[in-house]
Amino acid sequence: MVARFGPSLERVVVSNRQYPPYGTYGPKPEYEDHEPYGRMYQDTYRPAYEARVQAARARQATGPLLHRPTEAAPRTGGRAPARHAARRRKGRARTHSVRRLLPQALVVAFLAGGTTAFIAKDKAIELTVEGRHRTLHTFADDVGELLAREGVGVGAHDVVVPSPGTPLTSGEEVAVHYGRPVRLTLDGHRRVVWTTARTVDGALEQLGVRAEGAYLSTSRSLRIHREGLALDVRTERTLTVMADGRLRTLRTNAATVREALERAGITLRGEDTTSVAPGSFPVDGQTVTVLRVRGSREVREEPIPFPVRRTQDPTLFRGTVLVARAGQPGTRRVTYALRSVNGVRQRPRRVRVEVVQRPTTQLVRVGTRARPESVAGAEHLDWEGLAYCESRGRPRAVDASGTYGGLYQFDRRTWRSTGGSGRPQDAPAEEQTYRAKKLYVRQGTSPWPHCGSRLYG
User: Fold this and answer.
1) Would you say 440 and 446 are in contact if contact means Cβ atoms under 8 Å apart?
2) Are residues 157 and 130 in the same domain?
3) Could you say which of 274, 291, 308 is where a domain stops?
4) Is residue 82 part of a domain?
5) Per the domain annotation, does 27 fall within a domain?
6) Does the bond joining 162 to the residue before it have cis omega, within 30 degrees of 0?
7) Beta strand pairing status for 215-216 and 189-195?
């Protein structure tokens, strides 16, 4: 009876016994082709086959990391092989136990070393922020890292002790003081300062401001919040005051000179003033003189000079100046303040001007025409003698009636008939002589019935 289980494995069953396939553990037996079925033979392959199967199962049980050598087929019978097998099993168990304990030992060693490092990095720190104290444990290396981990922000005006870059050690004390802006007006000078003090009194001490006898705009015990506050401080100063013939020394924290005088019982009345501005800030060591002022008003009327406007006139000889319209001065009313300081009369001060009458502008004509050198038929006569006889040689002479004027006492009609303009007494002496010569050539000495004979010497 033959049973087949595939191309790789074939067993021959003879009389209910199994044999391995041909060629598996040795050469092909010679009896297959020569002996009839049913003959019984000794099984020489089965022990080796079963030993190999057991070795394969042992390898599968221990896994791919532990490779064991293939055991030889156990010998049948005897105690020596049993002892050897027991020793081998015991050695394998010991090796397997060591291999199992080794990772556990490594884990224990790692945890022990990490715990030591953990304890070494941990630091107990005393942290104080704005007076609030607490104790904490941290792994931070320096003060700045500690503040960052604790969420404590600091700015340029905040104070950290020790500084943020300082390394931390266990038991260290770290303090944070926040800066506060103070809009300080100290003795009239304004500025913004920063302080870590939490009260006005502490801020004055930090800033070095002497508070004894000083004026403070707020209470010294007032708390300063993070947003700051405005503070007006006036320290006590010494003033020397000269008033009403007396010299006295004052200690004051007043805001103005006037206030300091009033506190000393010195009152300014009317126009009274001081040698420094009464509203100015008093300076330490300053000397102030009180000026008693007594004043009055005076009104005066003063003339306003008239302006003169000159124009060129080509009809007049060069050098001739003719007043076409005489100017008239105006009038103004001026109010003066008269005062005396400490009994000494001061220069009057003009405080008001009112125009009563405006001045009239004087118009003057200036001749530009070229003057002739001579008048034919009249150059050889004594004109100086005639002028002396008529007006005593005065070009501006006017008779008592106001009809005749100038060197030769022209009336206006005769003056204009010779080419003159304006009044004869306003014309230059040369022009008056020229007009007189023209009149002589035309009429002879008849215009001067009493003095005409002087022309002939």
Assistant:
1) no
2) yes
3) 291
4) no
5) yes
6) yes
7) unpaired
Q: What CATH number does residue 214 fall under?
A: 3.10.20.30
- What is the domain range of residue 225? 180-234
Task: Say if residues 45 and 26 touch (Cβ distance below 8 Å).
Answer: yes
- Spatial contact of 308 and 327, defined as CB atoms under 8 Å apart: yes
Residue 102 belongs to a domain: no
Token pair in block for residue 320 = 């001739």
Domain boundary among 249, 265, 291: 291
Contact 378, 441 (CB under 8 A): yes
- Tell me how far apart the alpha carbons of residues 214 and 191 are, in angstroms, rounded to a whole number: 18
The enclosing domain of 391 has a CATH number of: 1.10.530.10
Burial code of 231-269, b = ≥16 C-beta within 10 A, e = fewer? Answer: bbbbeebebebbbeeeeeebebbbbebbebbeebebebe
348 close to 338: Cβ distance less than 8 angstroms = yes
256/270 Cα distance (integer angstroms): 18
What letter would DSSP give residue 277?
Answer: -
Which pTM was predicted?
A: 0.43
Strand-pair partners of 345 = 340
pLDDT at residue 49, rounded to an integer = 53
Q: Calculate the dihedral angle through the C-alpha atoms of 143, 145, 149, 151, rounding to the nearest 10 degrees.
A: 70
SS3 154: coil
Where the chain has pLDDT below 70, the residues are 1-50, 52-53, 56, 60-86, 90-120, 372-373
